[in-house]
Amino acid sequence: MDPRVAQVAAVAALAEPTRRRLYDHVVRQPEPVGRDEVAAALGVPRATVAFHLDRLVADGLLDVHYQRRTGRSGPGAGRPAKLYRRSECSVAVSLPERHYDLAGELLAEAVTEAERSGERPAAVLHRRAYGRGRELGVAVDGAGGREAVLRVLEAHGYEPRIGEGGVALANCPFHDLARGRTELVCGMNLRLLEGLLDGVGFSGLTARLQPAPGACCVRMDGGDPSPGSGAPDG
């Protein structure tokens, strides 16, 4: 399943009132809990509890843990109890799509490296962003060129719109960050997309800054990029 579809499904699962009550109860417990405990605590029929808890497992919100509670082992110890606990995955859905986790990771990496090397944090950030973009481009399976670029842009929330002269990016995945730190974040974004183009290989596109209200600060123009134009600074 597409990761974004899975995230939306997980959030939607909690819209059902009983299921939300069960989820809230399970995650508040210090140890994994069984169906009978949840049913007794909330006054919900055991069959209903079993259905909703397993739905929460299927949606990635809870994990199942098996444990013998008798303290015995071996033959005659009985079957392990099926217990539930909060899953380790995190679920977040934003509309329009945002990727502050990616920005945060790049910024943290840049600060850590800059403290160690003494290099300007912005320069490290640009290099890190370019490298991450290139990794995304190299990793694309299937069609190359422009189609591969569009696929990555869609997957990361840019909402590419093909038009005359190139590709406009209707959404900024780093919108709130860019509003207060425009030069730093937009520079990072540009280097990320330059790295993407370089990683994909020839796509007939070049990335450049072109801020516009309600859109990403980067636009991808058509035409053949000059050799080496995507290489990182320094």
Provide structural commentary:
With 234 residues, the chain is of the alpha+beta class. Helix content is 50%, strand content 14%. The chain has helices at residues 3-13, 17-28, 35-42, 46-58, 100-117, 121-138, 145-155, 175-180, 182-200, and strands spanning 33-34, 62-67, 81-86, 160-163, 166-169, 205-209, 218-222. The strands form two sheets. A four-stranded antiparallel beta sheet has the order 4-5-7-6, covered by helices on one side. Strands 1-3-2 form a three-stranded antiparallel beta sheet. Helix 2 (17-28) packs across helix 4 (46-58), helix 5 (100-117) crosses helix 6 (121-138) and helix 6 runs parallel beside helix 9. The longest helix is centred in the last third of the chain and has 19 residues, at 182-200. Residues 224-234 have low confidence and may be disordered.
In short:
The chain is of the alpha+beta class and 234 residues long. The chain is built from nine helices and seven strands.
